[in-house]
Every structure is written in structure tokens, then in C-alpha cells.
Amino acid sequence: MQDVVGMGLSLVYVLAVLAASSLLARHGMGEEGTRKLVHVALGGWWVVAALFFTSPWWAAALPAAFIVVNALAWRKQKLAFMARGEGEDTPGTVYYAVSLTLIALFSFGLGAPYVGALGVFCMAFGDGLAAVLGRRFGRRPLPGAGGGKSLAGSAAMLGVSFVSCAGVLLAAAAVDWEGAVPTFAPGAGLAPGVAAASVLAALGLAVAATVLEAASPEGLDNLSVPLGVTGLYAVLFLPAGPFTPAVAGVLLSGAVALAALRLGLLTVPGALGAVGVGALAFVFGGWPLWLLLMWFFGSSNVASRLMRRWRGGAQAARKRSGPRKLRQVLANSVPFLACALAYAATGEAWFLIVAAGALAASTADTWASEVGMYSRKPPVNIVTREPMQRGLSGGVSPLGLAATTVGAVSSAFLAMLLFHAFGFAVPTGPTAFLFVIACGIVGSVVDSFLGVLLQAKYRAPGGSGAGAGGEAGNGCGAGAGADVGTLAGVGAGTAAFAADGALVEAAPSRGAAGYTLVSGYAWVTNDAVNLLSGIAVVALGLLVALP
């Protein structure tokens, strides 16, 4: 009955906030004002939830429903009083509801709503008031942040978040930390030492909230701030539990994804997908698999920059990196995650080795394409050995083959080093090491064969420009950057308009008339080839490794 009462009061509270905002909008309040009013006022719902809800499912039900409502409103541009003004079109309201749902499930599941209040109040009060004060007093921009962030706004974010977190922690200590008790206050109540520790913890969380808000683009602060603050508190100050690896994986992967967004290496959906993939890798395989995943993601960009400095000139001008999309992240991740899950479920060490082999294959293939594009010799078709157009999948070059080997060997070396350093019971001796190398090289070669035999290639209409490009090259140095770039300065996922007779690997989504499929299958894109080659490596690896 208490949960039912809580749901009724929650509905009344939320509808009253929305009605008040709508009424103020009709009486002349601007969109930004009404949006911030909703943003700040809805944070107060957490007090109602903490007082009445006992079940995490009841607590999460209302914000979960608003995920759907806000998504539809954002799509159809309804609820103008909740919309972001100045032409910005981000699903921030959807992220807000997602955060409330996840935090409700987590903190009420622990029986400690105060843990969720830390993140919710930083998002609602800290971020909301920071935007208001930043617009009013923000004369100086925050260095390096961009996106209209100001020093005044960040200072307000820091101050309000600190007051909010300190108030929550001191209040929780005063009532003997109902639910999960932090490690610095085991049944001590509001003793002087506990009060001091609470204030210091609040200061650290406020700093984290401020950094996350400043680093998050496109409305993502409604995800990064509440989840980051609550997750950071849970990992640092609550006793370790079954939730700890997942929360730690989200925090680590989220930090990398935010950095990648700032550097233009991921789209927003790609970043969200990368957080999920990274968290699962950490849960299933701990630090070794997570660090191997980071090596795959980061090393290709480092290799490309080094080659650009070394070769420079015209070769560097041919490539324009584009951010990785969600489908690209998943295409390179699903096969190794399946093996990692099998390892977590069975404890069979060879599943872990095959998972490392799948990552080595992705790393070797990406290195081959990133480095191979700088080959002075034109690539040759891996099947026919005849010269082929630069930028098409299935082309190989000596430089690309060398990069394949380096990528596979470096991945194998790192994998075995990490498995043994972190105490994983994997096979010793050269067998597992050579196995991971073989997976890396075979995966890249299979990727090239599939690129020649299956991947779609179109003949572009003539006279539209110079150069050629596709989504990305596959395999052992095709002359294009795998997954993250194309030739002719065209971003990933689009087609370059090519000179007469040139081929591309993706017809444009608009204006595709005149593009003729000359080989492969239209559904076999670069991402499909990456997924198929990963599946092939895993299947072959399991056939060889398992009895």
C-alpha cells in the first residue's frame, strides 16, 4: 500500500510541475525558463520517492514511463515548455528520464535512496541552476569546454552540487545511514569524524559532477552527471558487492567515451554503445579484456597519427576520419563479447583466449587499414593479385600486411601480460600466445577475402568529381581507414562522388540514382564484413581450441 500511495503522490507532483511550467509558458515565460524550471523541480520528486517507495520496481515505474513520453515528445517536437531553446535539438529530456530510472533501480535495490539522491540532486539542482546563473553572469567561457560553458556556470555547478551532496550525506548520517552504509561510517552515526568525511566526500563528488557537466556535449550531462556521481560514490565508499564490477565498468568506459566524443572519434549513439560494450567487457573479463578493448580502440588512432607524421603530404590529405557509429562499435564487439560471456558462464579459460583472439583480429584489421593507406605501392586484390583501386575492401599491400602482423603481435603480447598479471588461469607457454597472433592475422585476411567476394561495390556516375571512396577499407592495407574514415574527404557512412569508372562501397542515402551495383551484395556493408569476419575467427578459434 505504501508503494501505491507513493505512485499516486508521484503522479500528482510530476503533473503539477508540468502544469505549472505549461501555464507559465502561456503567460510569457521563455522556453529556456520553463525548461529549467522543469529540470530543477523534477529533482524534488526524489524526496517523495525516498519517503514512500520500498520497491525499486515501483520507484522506477514512473520515470520509465516518461522515457517513452519524452522520446515521443522529442520526436514530434511537442511539450515546447520542456524543449531546449536556441535551435538545439538534443534528447536531453529522454536522458533525464533514463537516469532517474537506472538510479531508482540501483539505489532502491540497495535499500539506500540517499545514494541515488546524490546523482539526482547534482543533475537537477546543480546542472539546472548552473545553466541559469551561467547565462546571467557567465561573461568568460570555460577554457577547453566549448558548448557555451562558462566559468560562472561551472562555479555554480560546483557550489550547488557540493551543498546538495553534503546535505544528503549529513542527513543520511543523522538517521544512521538507512540502507547501504559507507565504509567510512560503520554504525557511527553523525560523529565528528563521519561529518568531516561526509563533507570531504561531498566535495569530491561535486568536483566530479562539475567536470562531467563541462565535458558532456549534446545534453549528455543528464546521463553523465547523475550516473557518474552515484556510481562514483558507490564504488569508492560502499562495501564491494555484486554491482561493483558493472558500476566500475560503466565509470571507466564512460570516461573514455566522453574523451572520444570530445576528440570526434565517436558519435553520441556510438559513445553510448561503447559504454555498454566496455562495461560488459569489464564484468565478464575484468581489467584484461577491458584494457584489450581500449587498446583496439585507441591504438589504431595512434598508429594513424604516427603514419601521418611520418609520411605526411598527399597521403595524409586523402584521409578524413569520421566518428565511429553505433553499428560500427557493435560489429567489432559482438563476437568477442559472446566469448567473454561464455567464459564468465563456464570458467573455461580457452573462451577467454578466443575472446582475446577476436579483439586481436579487430585490432590487426584496423591497423592494416589505418597504416596501409599510406603505402606508396598501390594495393592488389587479395584473390586475383591484380592491382586494384585504392580505398576498396580486399586490397592488400606490404605495408598493410606488416601492420596486420604488428597489430596481432602487440595484442597477443598485451593479452598474455594482462592475463598473468591479474592472476587469470589461462594456458601458459607459447601456445596461447601464438594462438592469439594467429587469430589476429587470420581474422584480417578473412576480412579481406569477404571484402572482395561479398561486400557491395557500386559504379558511381561519371563526371561528379575526383577521387573515390567508400565507407572504409577492409583487411590487410586496402588503402582506406577501416571503420573511421574514407578517401576523398568523405565521412564514414556516405559515398564519395567519384570520377568516371571509379567504384565506391556505399551509395549515398540521397541521390543514389546512377549508382550501379557491380559486385557483392547490397546488404553486405563494411560493418557486416567486420561482423562476419569476427564470427568466423571465433568459430575457427573454438574449433581449434576446444576439445
Q: Helices, strands, pairings?
A:
Blueprint: H1 2-26, H2 31-41, H3 45-52, H4 56-76, H5 92-109, H6 113-137, H7 151-174, H8 192-215, H9 221-237, H10 244-262, H11 268-311, H12 313-317, E1 320-321, H13 326-331, H14 334-346, H15 349-372, E2 380-381, E3 395-396, H16 398-421, H17 430-453, E4 457-459, E5 485-486, E6 503-504, E7 516-519, H18 526-545
Helix pairs in contact: 1-2, 1-3, 2-6, 3-6, 4-5, 5-6, 5-9, 6-7, 6-8, 6-9, 7-8, 8-9, 9-10, 10-11, 11-14, 11-15, 11-16, 14-15, 14-18, 15-16, 15-17, 15-18, 16-17, 17-18
What distinguishing features does this structure have?
3% strand; 18 helices; mainly alpha; 64% helix
Describe this structure in words.
The strands form 3 sheets. The chain has a 3-stranded antiparallel β-sheet with strand order 6-4-7, with no helix packed on it. A two-stranded antiparallel sheet has the order 1-5. The protein is globular. The relative contact order is 0.07. Helix content is 64%, strand content 3%. About 9% of the residues have low confidence. With 547 residues, the protein is mainly α. The protein is built from 18 helices and 7 strands. α11 packs across α15 and α15 runs antiparallel to α18. The N and C termini lie far apart (56 Å).
Quantity of strands, as a count: 7
Percentage of helical residues? Answer: 55-70%
Distinct helical segment count? 18
**Low-pLDDT residue intervals, each spanning 5 or more residues:** 80-88, 313-320, 463-472, 478-500
From the spread of the alpha carbons, the general shape counts as globular
Adjacency order of strands in the biggest sheet: 6-4-7
The chain-level mean pLDDT equals: 82
The major β-sheet equals: 3 strands, antiparallel
* Beta-strand percentage range: under 5%
Task: Name the structural class.
Answer: mainly alpha
Order of helices and strands: HHHHHHHHHHHHEHHHEEHHEEEEH
Radius of gyration computed on alpha carbons: 26 Å
Instruction: Quote the distance from N terminus to C terminus.
Output: 56 Å
